[in-house]
Design a protein that fits this description.
113 residues; mainly alpha; 5 helices; 0% strand; elongated
Length: 113
């Protein structure tokens, strides 16, 4: 009887998995992640080009979705920054140095797509 009592009692310092509230079981992002995301978008905003800002914004969202997808597959804790920042930097460089000059030339030539 004492063995049955010891298996049903839990340590008060450690809750069981089933006792966790739904908020505790979800994916969490730290405040530092959002600070780095905003630094990238802020740097893009200094370019005075809305295409670059929106490209970085969309890239960060794509990277975040890829991180969550990989998290669902691997089921291990992953850092949220590397994929989003890497995709964001690629989009920033491509938009700033390829797309923006092309759009400027099209505007000068009065070609609209």
């Amino acid at each position: 009887n004492s063995s049955a009592d010891s298996s049903t009692t839990r340590s008060p310092s450690r809750p069981a998995e089933t006792d966790m509230e739904p908020e505790e079981q979800g994916v969490k992002l730290g405040l530092g992640d959002f600070i780095f995301y905003s630094v990238l978008v802020g740097k893009a905003a200094t370019a005075d080009d809305w295409n670059t800002v929106m490209a970085c914004f969309v890239a960060i969202l794509i990277g975040l979705c890829l991180t969550l997808l990989i998290l669902a597959i691997v089921k291990k804790a992953l850092p949220a920054l590397p994929i989003s920042i890497f995709v964001g930097i690629i989009f920033y460089v491509c938009t700033r140095f390829c797309i923006q000059p092309m759009c400027d030339q099209m505007a000068i030539s009065q070609v609209y797509v």
